[in-house]
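seq as requested:
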Amino acid sequence: MESRLHLPNEHAPQKVRACYVDFDGVLHDDAVYWGIKRGIHIRTPGRVLFEWMPILEDLLAPHPDIKIVLSTSWVRVKSFEFAKKQLAPALQERVIGSTYHRRHMRIDAFELMSRGHQILRDVERRKPVSWFAIDNDDFGWPDEYRDRLIRTEDHLGLSDRKVQDAIRNILETL
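struct tokens:
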């Protein structure tokens, strides 16, 4: 009998349920800017970076099999590792990748795609068994996948109770 080493196939379907997560307008207010002196900061008075992250932790806690794919521009602008490290340890453990991959695509082509198409391209590559996205950007989102988008308001993000309820509902039906 011949023994064979089975290497993981990057294009084989992953047996995961995926949540695509944006940062700005989801985990904190959308008014995020970067400057040489101030670094990454929010211009909305009284708001802080990642203030709504504990809400995502609580929503995902009953669903330990849900994995996170980062769909935030932070990956492209800074790096995957930088973006991942901004999350709480419990969320970091769930992260399995991002929609932007330097070795899979040109940055200019990626930037020309709507967020929905960026996510769909990743779904086609990653092949999760089920998925949904949490994002404040629905521009150009394909109509046939609108039911997989939990759209947040720029200045409310995950603090909006209607959004929290929608996430709970989709998690139960995935």
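The chain is about 30% helix and 20% strand.
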